Sequence to fold (122 residues):
Amino acid sequence: EVQLVESGGGLVQAGGSLIVSCAASGFTFDDYAIGWFRQAPGKEREGVSCIFGSDGSTYYADSVKGRFTISSDNAKNTVYLQMNSLKPEDTAVYYCAADHGCGWSLADFGSWGQGTQVTVSS
Fold:
């Protein structure tokens, strides 16, 4: 059974940094892609970033490019999202998701974590 557990969310001031983690289990990490999505209050869930476990290829939404960095520790089956220069509009629940490929649609991922709250104060 695929399981994903996010951690590391919290409250940070605008301009600050935060790292969230996604611990994965129940599958061979090298065969999967892990994506990060976020959902702000009253808004639809949107894709933020994605990484392929096999070769480390990464993808970013334009809104976070240059500020966020996704990385993985395949030995630990863990994916990280380093978030720098945070803005109040980055406030959201951040979810990680897993499937065999990257994509920006919720339908591209079959397994989801429970989410972790990130709040950026102005």
